[in-house]
Amino acid sequence: MLSVLRTHLPSDIPIAGCELTPYVLLRKPDNSITTDDIPEGAPVQGYYLQCKWLRVKNEKRVAVCSVHPSEVATLQCLLCVKAKLPAAKSYHCSPQCFAAAWRNHKELHARAAAAPAKDQNGNNTAPEEEELFGTGPPGSSHATRRSIIGLPNGAAYPAP
Predict the structure, then answer these.
(1) Per the database record, which ranges form the C6H2-type domain (predicted)?
(2) Which candidate in 8, 9, 80, 117 could, as Cys together with 90 as Cys, close a disulfide (CB 3.0–4.6 Å)?
(3) Could you read off the pLDDT of 103-117 as tens digits, one per residue?
């Protein structure tokens, strides 16, 4: 099992508006100890860990980019919204950021499509593939264009 042994934020100075990288000590299933991140693309027994700490200056809630947490989100992936994936993974700071992250981001959609959701009665409620990906294949530019929505001034996406 992947276990967190120790965490430490290497600063006693109150800092706002910049990203800090905390010190995290992990024990892997083979009992080895590491301070390295466990990337989402190479999980250990299905678990991954990437740590970043960001303290923002203002207290109003704004959506932040899932790739660049120091940036305010300006768009959201609609495929994630339709698939009811965690909102935090669906925000991006620019179309370029979204395009650069698309290869890894579309894996979230594939996992959502592969793992059927259940309602309270145990019935399958997973959206159909056509609903998740539009009319084109998952990597098509048509599906990508349809999946982006602008967020005015970084505000959260309004519920459909």
Answers:
(1) 72-110
(2) 80
(3) 888 888 888 788 766
